[in-house]
Amino acid sequence: HLGQHKRSSLQPKRQVDLIKNSFPLQTFQWLKPFHLKAKVGDSIIEGDYLYASVSNATSLGGIFRLDPEKVKVDDGVFEFVLVKAPVNFSEKSKLVTGLLTESLNSEYVDLKYSTEIKIKLNSPMTWSLDGENGGEYKDIVITNLKGIINMVGI
Fold it and tell me: Helical H runs in 1-127?
């Protein structure tokens, strides 16, 4: 359980860092792989994954940080992040190390850019839209409608 840690001789700040950094390790065991097939631009991606995100932001749920030079909210392009499901302990260890360092430079993380992403899942999956329940879907089409809303200053 988080919060039920034994007292130690560690300095308080370091102890907080250890608790924070143990979160991915503790939650990792609860993630269930899912099979996904996606059309991203002209490419087809297919495999077993633990995490998928379509976004237009530099931070993905506090798990990853994307390069602000490559992520522009007004460029009409989405960032599509997939975390591959590891198959053995060695792969799990490498994946957790990447998560702890917020690294996208990992053989287990795919980062793609596209204006439209079509996703097919084997079974319905719950999606989140800006932190809110986005429903449950097997077939998803996400299209970036660049410039569809004009904002006028007052």
Answer: 12-28, 89-100
| Residue ranges in the chain assigned as alpha helix (H) | 12-28, 89-100
Is 38 strand, coil or helix? strand
Identify the helix (H) or strand (E) that includes residue 54: strand 43-55
Residue spans of alpha helices (H) in 54-148: 89-100
User: What is d(CA 33, CA 29) in angstroms, rounded to the nearest whole number?
Assistant: 11
The tens digit of pLDDT for each residue in 77-119 reads 888 888 888 888 888 777 777 766 666 667 788 889 999 999 9
Q: What angle do CA 10, 17, 24 make, to 5 degrees?
A: 130
Exposed/middle/buried for residue 122 (C-beta within 10 Å: 0-12, 13-18, 19+): exposed
